[in-house]
Design goal:
mainly alpha; 2 domains
Length: 104
């Protein structure tokens, strides 16, 4: 177990040093890797993944946010119409209006 941890640590250290010494090679490796992924998976799947992943992450983030006092005050201010948040504008474009919820 200790040998595995040391090997992983050493590999990450080597990768970090390589990245520091040759930054353009790292960029080209990322671009070539992206091209290979697009080539093997097909452009349609990659396009759908590229579009749906950010939208999905936005909804996951908004559903898992902490419901603290600052968030509740921001929601009330947005409900009154004094300030618009990016998520409020996005939901409004989808036709979803915020509902009046009591502050308990």
């Amino acid at each position: 177990m200790t040998i595995k941890i040391r090997t992983i640590f050493f590999t990450f250290r080597l990768a970090a040093q390589f990245k520091k010494d040759y930054p353009l090679v790292g960029v080209f490796l990322i671009l070539i890797g992206g091209y290979i992924i697009v080539y093997f998976l097909g452009s349609v799947i990659v396009f759908l993944f590229g579009v749906l992943l950010p939208i999905g992450l936005t909804f996951i983030h908004s559903s898992m946010r902490l419901r603290n006092m600052k968030n509740k005050i921001t929601n009330k201010i947005e409900l009154i119409g004094l300030k618009k948040t990016p998520m409020g504008m996005f939901l409004e474009s989808l036709g979803m209006e915020p509902e009046l919820v009591s502050l308990h």
